[in-house]
Write a structure and sequence with these properties.
Blueprint: E1 8-11, E2 21-26, E3 30-35, E4 41-45, H1 46-51, E5 53-57
Antiparallel strand pairs: 1-2, 1-5, 2-3, 3-4
């Protein structure tokens, strides 16, 4: 899966604060993502994160 830094991931499950969109800060063997509502940063294993991605929003693409 092609996930890049500054992508917004729409996840299947919500963060405890209620938001389901996360900003990608770092990608590699694991992802560092930031919740767009509360600002909490989390390190998640790539395999676990990729299973829970519903949609990838790119800032450079319209729509």
């Amino acid at each position: 899966m092609d996930v890049r830094v500054s992508d917004i991931l729409v996840m299947k499950k919500n963060h405890p604060c209620g938001e389901n969109r996360f900003l990608v800060l770092r990608s590699g063997m694991d992802f560092k993502i930031r919740c767009l509502r509360c600002g909490r940063e989390v390190m998640v294993a790539r395999s676990k994160c990729e299973k829970n991605i519903k949609k990838i929003l790119r800032p450079d693409e319209e729509g």
